[in-house]
Specification:
4-stranded antiparallel sheet, 6-stranded mixed sheet, about 325 residues, Rossmann fold, alpha/beta
């Protein structure tokens, strides 16, 4: 339903307000890069940023990433870019990427290629921030996926509103709101076929799991899951800060490994964070390092009976030598 003539549609007002709040620390002449796929979320975000820039003085540019995963994706990307240019964003780049799975799932591979393209575009356009169109519904789906994987509090904390240069101003708005905003502004949107492909876990959560939860438990499940993510993120941030300090104290003076006697007395929540951080630093990729791997590392510290070490994702080898736990690429350990 359109708002009466002369009155701003509530959904448009909500999007603009969240953009304004999400960029309230930026000054005039700073550059904002919007990542836009042509879907309702990122399109609403781009239009909101363009509008707010007229008052704030930001320079708003955009990038449309063409993953090349469907026939005609280049044509869609060109149409999205034309829409954005017509709404005041300039320049708008179309960037084609090659999605190379290399043993990982299609979603993860596409995400890796997309973020690489966004990082390059931000560097090329001297962007101070990059805006992503994730919504409250995306956050709820992320929490459920993390819960199913048993990946711990950090995974359940979902996506951060701000992470380095990346920002997600619409995390408190629903997907219905962004759709309504685009409709009110007369902006056509593109529906990615992958959003309806139940080969992907996120799609099954979106179309099967969340509706069942809403039916069985009542409306508001998505909002509750997003609220849980926010609360857990605060907890996880605090624990991560404590773990970073603990890791420094556990490092051997010569820098070669972690002191087991210092690790074993840590609370489990801190010790596991220290071990995960050490594995990441040694080269194990975050996307492949799961709780089961961290638990195996923890057993080398707390239940060691002379057993052999373990192999971690990314070709990282963990070995305990007496009172020292060492993690390094397998080639280094021989």
């Amino acid at each position: 339903m359109n708002a009466p003539r002369g009155r701003l549609h509530p959904a448009v007002a909500d999007v603009r307000r969240m953009v304004r709040r999400g960029l309230d620390d930026l000054g005039p002449d700073q550059t904002v890069l919007v990542a836009c796929s042509g879907g309702p979320d990122s399109t609403a975000l781009a239009l909101g940023a363009a509008f707010e820039s007229r008052h704030a003085g930001w320079r708003v540019v955009a990038v449309v990433v063409d993953h090349g995963l469907q026939p005609g994706s280049d044509r869609v990307a060109t149409q999205v870019a034309q829409l954005l240019r017509g709404r005041g964003l300039a320049p708008v780049d179309v960037v084609a990427v090659a999605v190379d799975q290399r043993g990982e799932g299609l979603e993860a591979a596409a995400r890796r290629a997309r973020y690489a393209a966004l990082d390059e575009a931000a560097h090329r356009r001297h962007a101070d921030v990059v805006l992503l169109g994730h919504t409250l519904d995306d956050q709820a789906e992320t929490v459920l996926l993390g819960l199913a994987r048993g990946s711990g509090a950090r995974s359940l904390a979902g996506m951060a509103e701000r992470s380095a240069r990346y920002r997600r101003p619409l995390l408190s708005l629903t997907r219905d709101t962004t759709r309504a905003a685009c409709a009110a502004e007369g902006a056509p949107v593109w529906e990615d076929p992958h959003n309806h492909d139940d080969r992907f876990a996120r799609v099954r959560v979106r179309h099967d799991v969340l509706p069942v939860l809403e039916s069985a438990l009542g409306p508001g499940c998505a909002q509750a899951l997003a609220r849980t993510a926010r609360l857990l993120r605060d907890d996880a941030d605090a624990l991560d800060a404590l773990a970073a300090e603990a890791e420094r104290e556990c490092r051997r003076v010569d820098g070669d490994g972690l002191d087991v006697s210092a690790l074993v007395v840590l609370p489990p929540a801190l010790r596991r964070r220290v071990l995960r951080s050490a594995a990441l630093a040694a080269g194990s990729p975050a996307t492949a390092l799961f709780a089961v791997h961290v638990d195996a590392l923890d057993e080398l510290v707390t239940r060691w009976h002379g057993q052999q070490g373990i192999d971690l994702p990314g070709g990282v080898c963990a070995r305990r030598c007496g009172g020292t736990l060492r993690l390094a690429p397998s080639a280094v350990r021989g």
